[in-house]
Design brief:
The protein is of the alpha+beta class. The chain is 41% helix and 10% strand. The strands form 3 sheets. It has a 3-stranded antiparallel β-sheet with strand order 1-3-2. A two-stranded parallel sheet has the order 4-5.
Amino acid sequence: LPAGARLPTHRDLATREGFALVTATRVYAELRAMGLISGETGRGTFVKETALAPGQGVDLDAVAADMVDLSFNYPSLPGQAELLRGALRQLAGAGDLEALLRYQPHGGRPADRAAIARHLRRRGLEVEGDRVLVVDGAQHGLAVTLMALLEPGDVVAVDALTYPGFRLVAGMQRLELALPAAGAGPDLDAL
């Protein structure tokens, strides 16, 4: 984009690109931190003039050699493969490896649940292991939580531009999503 170009509002960007409003806000915050955009309340957000002429920047290949690739959902950290190798050796030589190859109990293994409860107690949350539920990731955790707390047809008050994974789980459980978009924010009158 040329210097001085006006960027869409956060909400317009989120709607156009199909992601959450919080994601658009983070994108603009990152661009602002990098010195690429500037904004004024009431005027909008604009592309800033670049400090260097095209082709007169940093040697990106030299910088990339020391970078962590965050384009995936997990970073590939330097030395990660060797750490994993060592951890797998330790795991193979300790405990009941056979137990890890079988289906796990619903809610997690009792020893794992107890360890999580101890971890939470050290952080001030009084909980016993039998009250801990081990899930297989954030999406599974959302599904289990919604199933435990809500019935099909219940209404969940979330912004229209919420996390797509939440919308998917709510739809599978036939939950009604409230708060449609209304201009610059959620339509609170829809409650």
